[in-house]
Amino acid sequence: MFATMNPKEILNSHNLKRTSCREGIIEVIMSSDKALSENEIRDRLFGNYDRTTFYRSFKTLVESSIVHKIVVDNNLVKYALDNQVTHKNEHAHFYCNECNSVVCLESVTIEKPALPEGFSSSEIDFVIKGTCKLCKEKAE
């Protein structure tokens, strides 16, 4: 289960070589209560990794379905641990127009749609945009 797995165990369960950069990226994402951009992850990462090392490690984690991307729009992409790692159901994400945060809405589950014969889906994105509770309270 996700709550008891650490970065080392996550990498091992996906048959990936353990590197300090990969473990660090997973740790940064696990320690956040919201989805993060690549820059936010890189800025919070302990260790002095060059751009190439970071992006190769990051790309491997995305391709291995440890990290998934949440596309808000053409200019904004955030990342969180994949549902295969967290054992969550497919769910919606909420983007706050005020503070630019993205949070998982685990209570808003997404049913896989029935596609016409011959079609197959690789991912489903459902992003709700608006104002989060904290920003709404600040405005009042």
From TrEMBL:
<dbReference type="GO" id="GO:0003700">
    <property type="term" value="F:DNA-binding transcription factor activity"/>
</dbReference>
<keyword id="KW-0408">Iron</keyword>
<dbReference type="InterPro" id="IPR036388">
    <property type="entry name" value="WH-like_DNA-bd_sf"/>
</dbReference>
<protein>
    <submittedName>
        <fullName>Transcriptional repressor</fullName>
    </submittedName>
</protein>
<comment type="similarity">
    <text>Belongs to the Fur family.</text>
</comment>
<feature type="binding site">
    <location>
        <position position="132"/>
    </location>
    <ligand>
        <name>Zn(2+)</name>
    </ligand>
</feature>
<dbReference type="InterPro" id="IPR036390">
    <property type="entry name" value="WH_DNA-bd_sf"/>
</dbReference>
<dbReference type="GO" id="GO:0008270">
    <property type="term" value="F:zinc ion binding"/>
</dbReference>
<dbReference type="InterPro" id="IPR043135">
    <property type="entry name" value="Fur_C"/>
</dbReference>
<feature type="binding site">
    <location>
        <position position="99"/>
    </location>
    <ligand>
        <name>Zn(2+)</name>
    </ligand>
</feature>
<keyword id="KW-0862">Zinc</keyword>
<keyword id="KW-0479">Metal-binding</keyword>
<dbReference type="Pfam" id="PF01475">
    <property type="entry name" value="FUR"/>
</dbReference>
<feature type="binding site">
    <location>
        <position position="111"/>
    </location>
    <ligand>
        <name>Fe cation</name>
    </ligand>
</feature>
<keyword id="KW-0805">Transcription regulation</keyword>
<keyword id="KW-0238">DNA-binding</keyword>
<dbReference type="GO" id="GO:0045892">
    <property type="term" value="P:negative regulation of DNA-templated transcription"/>
</dbReference>
<dbReference type="GO" id="GO:1900376">
    <property type="term" value="P:regulation of secondary metabolite biosynthetic process"/>
</dbReference>
<dbReference type="InterPro" id="IPR002481">
    <property type="entry name" value="FUR"/>
</dbReference>
<feature type="binding site">
    <location>
        <position position="135"/>
    </location>
    <ligand>
        <name>Zn(2+)</name>
    </ligand>
</feature>
<dbReference type="GO" id="GO:0000976">
    <property type="term" value="F:transcription cis-regulatory region binding"/>
</dbReference>
<keyword id="KW-0678">Repressor</keyword>
<keyword id="KW-0804">Transcription</keyword>
<feature type="binding site">
    <location>
        <position position="96"/>
    </location>
    <ligand>
        <name>Zn(2+)</name>
    </ligand>
</feature>
